[in-house]
Amino acid sequence: MGMILKHPSDRGGSRSKPFERLAENASRFTSSATFFGICLIVVAAAVTLHVIGLPITWLLFVGEAMSAATLLMVALLKNSELRAERAVQRKLDAIAAALLEGQEGDGPGEAHQKLRSTLGGEKNS
Questions:
Q1: Which pLDDT tens digits describe the chain residue by residue (125 residues)?
Q2: pTM score, two decimals?
Q3: Rg (Cα) of the chain, in Å, rounded?
Q4: Does residue 53 sit in helix, strand or coil?
Q5: Phi and psi dihedrals of 107, rounded to 5?
Q6: CA atoms within 13 A on the CB side of 56
Q7: How far apart are CA 116 and CA 110, in angstroms?
Q8: How many CA atoms lie within 13 A of 28 on its CB side?
Q9: Burial of 40 (0-12, 13-18, 19+ CB in 10 A)
Q10: Treating both helix axes as pointing N-terminal to C-terminal, what angle do 33-51 and 18-30 enclose, rounded to 10 degrees?
């Protein structure tokens, strides 16, 4: 249960898990023009089914399928959003620590190294 409540980026390991890769790929695909085109086609098909007077059971099936797909995408995209949010927060924390360290006048130290590794680590992702 504890693993479920942890932030996706805190669940351990630097290796990307299958769900995380799926969430990232879903995020990239759903932000594409291709996906928008597919959505337009699906919505047009649903409207067409209503217009031609398909039986209510088929209309319910189409609506439920679209709802299920939407729910799955929300879960995938939320996971991707949380990981991106955490990455930005880590960078901001490292920048703030490096700025404070620089104001103390001791020269580059641990905070600068952490900032360098944080910024360098994100380039590989």
A1: 555 555 555 555 555 688 888 888 888 898 899 999 999 999 998 899 889 988 999 889 988 999 999 999 898 888 888 888 888 888 888 888 777 777 766 666 777 777 767 666 554 44
A2: 0.58
A3: 22
A4: coil
A5: 85, 180
A6: 0
A7: 10
A8: 5
A9: exposed
A10: 70
